[in-house]
């Protein structure tokens, strides 16, 4: 699943006339970078949710994305946030573990393809969620203070505490089991609900990304990201 329904408020004024996934970075829309990574990992089918300026985004993924079958989860009437978006797309996602990717982050694979690395690490017997994490010190253009703590084996053991740093940042790339999508509240809500349940059950894990990652959340981050990429 590709999460592409957000309003892109931090990216204004660029998002006044286009949805954030269609904002260009390094010569192509953000969502095209995502599909490049999905394609290289062998993904053949993707669900994309749409809300803000949905017509433009739907036309793009329908006519411009090649070699991957695209299904659209329509949130035009109500933005469901990340957790609600998963619920709305549940029937299209099938019954197997699936990759879920935010459309507003950009990453470059290291020696190991990040999505293939996640897939290789997935253990259905002990995992409900497997998140791709990047060390806070290598989170380009990211203004946050970290998200998670993991143990030496990769199990997520806690979130950042107020006033402290956490060593790892969530990259917006994960594998989820459909069994985590249950007992949801009405209306929009965050995937944090599903993560918290997985953490409490000891079934939330992390894999450390070996390449580059950029939080392309605002116009200044575009130039900063392009400068790093231009250095090779």
TrEMBL record:
The keyword Transport does not apply. Gene3D superfamilies: Spore Coat Polysaccharide Biosynthesis Protein SpsA, Chain A. Residues 1-138 form the Nucleotidyl transferase domain. This is Nucleotidyltransferase family protein. Keywords: Nucleotidyltransferase, Transferase. It comes from Sphingomonas plantiphila. SUPFAM superfamilies: Nucleotide-diphospho-sugar transferases. Transmembrane segments: none annotated.
């Amino acid at each position: 699943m590709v999460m592409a329904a957000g309003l892109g408020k931090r990216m204004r004024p660029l998002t006044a006339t286009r949805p954030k996934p269609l904002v260009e970075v390094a010569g192509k829309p953000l969502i095209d970078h995502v599909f490049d990574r999905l394609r290289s990992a062998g993904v053949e089918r993707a669900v994309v949710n749409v809300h803000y300026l949905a017509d433009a985004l739907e036309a793009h993924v329908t006519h411009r994305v090649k070699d991957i079958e695209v299904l659209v989860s329509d949130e035009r009437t109500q933005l469901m946030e990340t957790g609600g978006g998963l619920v709305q797309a549940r029937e299209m996602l099938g019954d197997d573990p699936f990759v879920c990717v935010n459309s507003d982050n950009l990453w470059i694979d290291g020696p190991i393809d990040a999505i293939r690395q996640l897939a290789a690490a997935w253990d259905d017997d002990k995992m409900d969620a497997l998140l791709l994490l990047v060390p806070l010190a290598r989170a380009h253009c990211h203004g946050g203070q970290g998200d998670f703590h993991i143990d030496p084996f990769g199990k997520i053991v806690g979130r950042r505490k107020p006033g402290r740093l956490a060593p790892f940042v969530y990259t917006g790339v994960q594998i989820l089991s459909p069994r985590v999508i249950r007992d949801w509240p009405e209306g929009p809500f965050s995937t944090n609900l599903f993560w918290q349940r997985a953490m409490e059950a000891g079934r939330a894990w992390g894999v450390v990304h070996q390449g580059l990652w950029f939080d392309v959340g605002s116009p200044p981050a575009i130039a900063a990201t392009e400068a790093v990429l231009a250095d090779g």
